[in-house]
Protein backbone atom coordinates (compact mmCIF):
# COMPACT_ATOMS: atom_id res chain seq x y z
CA UNK A 1 0.00 0.00 0.00
CA UNK A 2 2.82 2.38 0.81
CA UNK A 3 4.42 1.73 -2.56
CA UNK A 4 1.10 2.29 -4.34
CA UNK A 5 0.45 5.56 -2.50
CA UNK A 6 3.99 6.72 -3.36
CA UNK A 7 3.19 5.93 -6.99
CA UNK A 8 0.18 8.24 -6.89
CA UNK A 9 -2.67 5.97 -5.85
CA UNK A 10 -5.14 7.10 -3.22
CA UNK A 11 -5.13 5.40 0.19
CA UNK A 12 -8.75 4.31 -0.16
CA UNK A 13 -8.01 2.88 -3.60
CA UNK A 14 -5.07 0.92 -2.22
CA UNK A 15 -7.25 -0.41 0.59
CA UNK A 16 -9.97 -1.42 -1.85
CA UNK A 17 -7.52 -3.73 -3.64
CA UNK A 18 -7.17 -5.70 -0.38
CA UNK A 19 -10.73 -6.67 0.66
CA UNK A 20 -9.41 -9.47 2.87
CA UNK A 21 -7.89 -6.83 5.17
CA UNK A 22 -10.09 -3.74 4.66
CA UNK A 23 -13.86 -3.93 4.27
CA UNK A 24 -16.23 -1.41 2.75
CA UNK A 25 -16.37 0.49 6.04
CA UNK A 26 -12.64 1.27 5.92
CA UNK A 27 -12.60 2.06 2.22
CA UNK A 28 -15.59 4.43 2.28
CA UNK A 29 -14.49 6.27 5.40
CA UNK A 30 -10.94 6.77 4.13
CA UNK A 31 -12.27 7.91 0.73
CA UNK A 32 -14.51 10.42 2.52
CA UNK A 33 -11.58 11.64 4.63
CA UNK A 34 -9.36 12.06 1.58
CA UNK A 35 -12.08 13.98 -0.29
CA UNK A 36 -12.82 16.30 2.64
CA UNK A 37 -9.22 16.81 3.71
CA UNK A 38 -9.99 15.49 7.21
CA UNK A 39 -8.38 12.08 6.98
CA UNK A 40 -6.92 12.29 10.49
CA UNK A 41 -10.40 12.95 11.96
CA UNK A 42 -11.89 10.04 10.04
CA UNK A 43 -9.06 7.76 11.16
CA UNK A 44 -9.68 8.74 14.77
CA UNK A 45 -13.39 7.92 14.43
CA UNK A 46 -12.54 4.64 12.76
CA UNK A 47 -10.11 3.70 15.54
CA UNK A 48 -12.79 4.43 18.16
CA UNK A 49 -15.28 2.35 16.20
CA UNK A 50 -12.91 -0.62 15.95
CA UNK A 51 -12.24 -0.44 19.70
CA UNK A 52 -15.97 -0.44 20.46
CA UNK A 53 -16.61 -3.39 18.15
CA UNK A 54 -13.71 -5.33 19.68
CA UNK A 55 -15.06 -4.64 23.17
CA UNK A 56 -18.49 -5.96 22.21
CA UNK A 57 -16.97 -9.04 20.61
CA UNK A 58 -14.96 -9.78 23.75
CA UNK A 59 -18.08 -9.36 25.87
CA UNK A 60 -19.92 -11.91 23.76
CA UNK A 61 -17.02 -14.35 24.01
CA UNK A 62 -16.76 -13.92 27.77
CA UNK A 63 -20.51 -14.42 28.12
CA UNK A 64 -20.51 -17.62 26.05
CA UNK A 65 -17.15 -19.22 26.85
CA UNK A 66 -17.78 -19.85 30.56
CA UNK A 67 -21.15 -21.64 30.30
CA UNK A 68 -20.03 -23.63 27.24
CA UNK A 69 -16.89 -24.76 29.06
CA UNK A 70 -18.80 -25.71 32.21
CA UNK A 71 -21.45 -27.63 30.26
CA UNK A 72 -18.80 -29.43 28.21
CA UNK A 73 -16.87 -30.53 31.31
CA UNK A 74 -20.10 -31.54 33.07
CA UNK A 75 -21.27 -33.59 30.10
CA UNK A 76 -17.87 -35.30 29.87
CA UNK A 77 -17.86 -36.12 33.61
CA UNK A 78 -21.40 -37.54 33.53
CA UNK A 79 -20.57 -39.54 30.38
CA UNK A 80 -17.48 -41.06 32.00
CA UNK A 81 -19.39 -41.91 35.18
CA UNK A 82 -22.12 -43.66 33.20
CA UNK A 83 -19.63 -45.41 30.94
CA UNK A 84 -16.97 -46.58 33.44
CA UNK A 85 -18.19 -46.20 37.02
CA UNK A 86 -21.79 -47.45 36.90
CA UNK A 87 -20.83 -50.89 35.44
CA UNK A 88 -18.77 -51.53 38.61
CA UNK A 89 -21.86 -50.99 40.74
CA UNK A 90 -23.93 -53.05 38.32
CA UNK A 91 -21.79 -56.15 39.02
CA UNK A 92 -22.29 -55.56 42.74
CA UNK A 93 -26.06 -55.32 42.27
CA UNK A 94 -26.07 -58.55 40.25
CA UNK A 95 -24.33 -60.36 43.13
CA UNK A 96 -26.82 -58.92 45.61
CA UNK A 97 -29.83 -60.06 43.62
CA UNK A 98 -33.36 -58.81 44.19
CA UNK A 99 -35.31 -56.07 42.46
CA UNK A 100 -33.59 -52.74 41.95
CA UNK A 101 -35.37 -49.41 42.58
CA UNK A 102 -36.78 -47.79 39.45
CA UNK A 103 -34.28 -44.88 39.62
CA UNK A 104 -31.38 -47.35 39.75
CA UNK A 105 -32.81 -49.35 36.85
CA UNK A 106 -33.05 -46.21 34.74
CA UNK A 107 -29.44 -45.17 35.45
CA UNK A 108 -28.15 -48.72 34.87
CA UNK A 109 -30.11 -48.93 31.63
CA UNK A 110 -28.56 -45.70 30.39
CA UNK A 111 -25.12 -46.99 31.38
CA UNK A 112 -25.68 -50.26 29.53
CA UNK A 113 -26.81 -48.38 26.44
CA UNK A 114 -23.73 -46.15 26.51
CA UNK A 115 -21.42 -49.12 27.07
CA UNK A 116 -22.93 -51.01 24.14
CA UNK A 117 -23.02 -48.14 21.68
CA UNK A 118 -20.25 -45.82 22.85
CA UNK A 119 -18.44 -45.85 19.50
CA UNK A 120 -21.70 -45.24 17.65
CA UNK A 121 -22.58 -42.35 19.97
CA UNK A 122 -19.14 -40.77 19.53
CA UNK A 123 -19.40 -41.17 15.77
CA UNK A 124 -22.86 -39.60 15.77
CA UNK A 125 -21.61 -36.70 17.89
CA UNK A 126 -18.74 -36.09 15.48
CA UNK A 127 -21.06 -36.35 12.47
CA UNK A 128 -23.52 -33.92 14.07
CA UNK A 129 -20.75 -31.41 14.76
CA UNK A 130 -19.48 -31.72 11.19
CA UNK A 131 -23.00 -31.36 9.76
CA UNK A 132 -23.70 -28.33 11.95
CA UNK A 133 -20.48 -26.68 10.78
CA UNK A 134 -21.35 -27.34 7.14
CA UNK A 135 -24.89 -26.12 7.65
CA UNK A 136 -23.73 -22.90 9.29
CA UNK A 137 -21.51 -22.35 6.25
CA UNK A 138 -24.61 -22.01 4.07
CA UNK A 139 -26.83 -18.95 3.92
CA UNK A 140 -29.96 -20.89 4.86
CA UNK A 141 -28.23 -22.40 7.87
CA UNK A 142 -26.91 -19.03 9.02
CA UNK A 143 -30.37 -17.49 8.71
CA UNK A 144 -31.92 -20.29 10.77
CA UNK A 145 -29.18 -20.09 13.43
CA UNK A 146 -29.27 -16.28 13.69
CA UNK A 147 -33.07 -16.24 13.85
CA UNK A 148 -33.01 -18.86 16.60
CA UNK A 149 -30.34 -16.93 18.48
CA UNK A 150 -32.45 -13.76 18.44
CA UNK A 151 -35.48 -15.67 19.77
CA UNK A 152 -33.74 -17.23 22.77
CA UNK A 153 -35.24 -16.03 26.09
CA UNK A 154 -32.18 -14.30 27.60
CA UNK A 155 -29.36 -14.60 25.06
CA UNK A 156 -31.63 -13.33 22.28
CA UNK A 157 -32.25 -10.03 24.02
CA UNK A 158 -28.55 -9.65 24.71
CA UNK A 159 -27.62 -10.46 21.11
CA UNK A 160 -30.19 -7.99 19.75
CA UNK A 161 -28.72 -5.23 21.88
CA UNK A 162 -25.21 -6.09 20.71
CA UNK A 163 -26.22 -6.06 17.04
CA UNK A 164 -28.31 -2.90 17.45
CA UNK A 165 -25.45 -1.10 19.19
CA UNK A 166 -22.97 -2.15 16.50
CA UNK A 167 -25.36 -1.07 13.73
CA UNK A 168 -26.01 2.32 15.32
CA UNK A 169 -22.29 2.89 15.87
CA UNK A 170 -21.49 2.00 12.26
CA UNK A 171 -24.24 4.22 10.84
CA UNK A 172 -23.21 7.10 13.09
CA UNK A 173 -19.56 7.07 12.06
CA UNK A 174 -20.49 6.74 8.39
CA UNK A 175 -23.02 9.58 8.42
CA UNK A 176 -20.75 11.87 10.45
CA UNK A 177 -18.02 11.29 7.85
CA UNK A 178 -20.24 12.37 4.99
CA UNK A 179 -21.26 8.97 3.60
CA UNK A 180 -24.77 9.05 2.01
CA UNK A 181 -27.49 7.25 3.96
CA UNK A 182 -28.07 4.58 1.29
CA UNK A 183 -24.39 3.64 1.19
CA UNK A 184 -24.25 3.77 4.99
CA UNK A 185 -27.15 1.31 5.28
CA UNK A 186 -25.47 -1.09 2.85
CA UNK A 187 -22.18 -0.98 4.75
CA UNK A 188 -23.96 -1.33 8.10
CA UNK A 189 -25.76 -4.42 6.76
CA UNK A 190 -22.44 -6.02 5.80
CA UNK A 191 -21.00 -5.23 9.25
CA UNK A 192 -24.07 -6.30 11.27
CA UNK A 193 -22.73 -9.75 12.14
CA UNK A 194 -26.20 -11.29 11.98
CA UNK A 195 -27.75 -12.42 8.70
CA UNK A 196 -31.33 -11.70 9.83
CA UNK A 197 -30.48 -8.14 10.87
CA UNK A 198 -28.39 -7.65 7.72
CA UNK A 199 -31.33 -8.65 5.51
CA UNK A 200 -33.58 -6.30 7.48
CA UNK A 201 -31.16 -3.41 6.92
CA UNK A 202 -31.07 -4.14 3.20
CA UNK A 203 -34.88 -4.04 3.19
CA UNK A 204 -34.71 -0.70 5.03
CA UNK A 205 -32.30 0.59 2.38
CA UNK A 206 -34.67 -0.33 -0.44
CA UNK A 207 -37.59 1.40 1.27
CA UNK A 208 -35.53 4.51 2.06
CA UNK A 209 -34.47 4.60 -1.57
CA UNK A 210 -38.16 4.73 -2.46
CA UNK A 211 -38.73 7.69 -0.14
CA UNK A 212 -39.89 6.07 3.10
CA UNK A 213 -38.52 7.52 6.39
CA UNK A 214 -35.79 5.47 8.06
CA UNK A 215 -37.61 5.09 11.37
CA UNK A 216 -40.76 3.75 9.70
CA UNK A 217 -38.74 1.27 7.65
CA UNK A 218 -36.90 0.09 10.75
CA UNK A 219 -40.20 -0.36 12.58
CA UNK A 220 -41.71 -2.35 9.71
CA UNK A 221 -38.97 -4.99 9.94
CA UNK A 222 -40.23 -6.04 13.38
CA UNK A 223 -36.67 -6.69 14.55
CA UNK A 224 -35.32 -3.42 15.91
CA UNK A 225 -36.45 -2.19 19.37
CA UNK A 226 -39.15 0.47 19.55
CA UNK A 227 -36.83 2.85 21.43
CA UNK A 228 -34.29 2.69 18.61
CA UNK A 229 -36.97 3.50 16.03
CA UNK A 230 -38.24 6.40 18.14
CA UNK A 231 -34.78 7.92 18.57
CA UNK A 232 -34.11 7.57 14.83
CA UNK A 233 -37.41 9.42 14.26
CA UNK A 234 -36.27 12.25 16.54
CA UNK A 235 -32.91 12.37 14.76
CA UNK A 236 -34.59 12.58 11.36
CA UNK A 237 -36.95 15.34 12.49
CA UNK A 238 -34.22 17.44 14.10
CA UNK A 239 -31.45 16.76 11.58
CA UNK A 240 -29.25 15.19 14.27
CA UNK A 241 -29.41 11.55 13.18
CA UNK A 242 -25.70 10.84 13.62
CA UNK A 243 -25.45 12.18 17.23
CA UNK A 244 -28.67 10.36 18.12
CA UNK A 245 -27.27 7.11 16.75
CA UNK A 246 -24.11 7.61 18.79
CA UNK A 247 -26.20 8.16 21.91
CA UNK A 248 -28.30 5.03 21.40
CA UNK A 249 -25.15 3.03 20.61
CA UNK A 250 -23.64 4.16 23.93
CA UNK A 251 -26.86 3.21 25.70
CA UNK A 252 -26.94 -0.29 24.22
CA UNK A 253 -23.27 -0.88 24.98
CA UNK A 254 -23.88 0.09 28.61
CA UNK A 255 -26.89 -2.23 28.71
CA UNK A 256 -24.77 -5.05 27.29
CA UNK A 257 -22.21 -4.48 30.06
CA UNK A 258 -24.93 -4.76 32.70
CA UNK A 259 -26.54 -7.78 31.04
CA UNK A 260 -23.23 -9.66 30.78
CA UNK A 261 -22.39 -8.94 34.43
CA UNK A 262 -25.83 -10.10 35.57
CA UNK A 263 -25.69 -13.18 33.38
CA UNK A 264 -22.29 -14.23 34.67
CA UNK A 265 -23.45 -13.80 38.29
CA UNK A 266 -26.49 -16.00 37.66
CA UNK A 267 -24.89 -18.60 35.41
CA UNK A 268 -22.22 -19.81 37.81
CA UNK A 269 -24.55 -20.94 40.63
CA UNK A 270 -27.14 -22.19 38.13
CA UNK A 271 -24.67 -24.39 36.26
CA UNK A 272 -23.11 -25.69 39.47
CA UNK A 273 -26.58 -26.51 40.79
CA UNK A 274 -27.51 -28.39 37.62
CA UNK A 275 -24.27 -30.36 37.70
CA UNK A 276 -24.78 -31.14 41.39
CA UNK A 277 -28.35 -32.35 40.79
CA UNK A 278 -27.34 -34.65 37.92
CA UNK A 279 -24.43 -36.20 39.82
CA UNK A 280 -26.56 -36.36 42.98
CA UNK A 281 -29.23 -38.35 41.15
CA UNK A 282 -26.60 -40.79 39.91
CA UNK A 283 -25.08 -41.21 43.38
CA UNK A 284 -28.48 -41.69 45.04
CA UNK A 285 -29.50 -44.24 42.42
CA UNK A 286 -26.37 -46.27 43.22
CA UNK A 287 -26.86 -46.22 46.98
CA UNK A 288 -30.59 -46.96 47.01
CA UNK A 289 -30.12 -50.74 46.47
CA UNK A 290 -27.49 -50.86 49.23
CA UNK A 291 -29.79 -48.98 51.58
CA UNK A 292 -32.67 -51.34 50.75
CA UNK A 293 -30.45 -54.38 51.36
CA UNK A 294 -29.25 -53.04 54.71
CA UNK A 295 -32.82 -52.31 55.72
CA UNK A 296 -33.92 -55.85 54.89
CA UNK A 297 -30.98 -57.26 56.87
CA UNK A 298 -31.83 -55.07 59.81
Overview of the structural elements:
The chain has 298 residues and is mainly alpha-helical. The protein contains twelve helices and no strands. Helix 4 runs antiparallel to helix 7. The longest helix has 58 residues. The chain is elongated. The model has no long low-confidence stretch (mean pLDDT 85).
Largest sheet: none
Strand fraction band? under 5%
In helices, the fraction of residues equals over 70%
Individual helix count: 12
* Overall strand count: 0
Tell me the series of helices and strands, N- to C-terminal.
HHHHHHHHHHHH
Shape: elongated
Distance between the termini: 87 Å
Give start-end ranges of low-pLDDT stretches.
Answer: none
Q: What is the C-alpha radius of gyration, as a whole number of Å?
A: 28 Å
Mean pLDDT over the full residue set: 85
The chain-level structural class is: mainly alpha
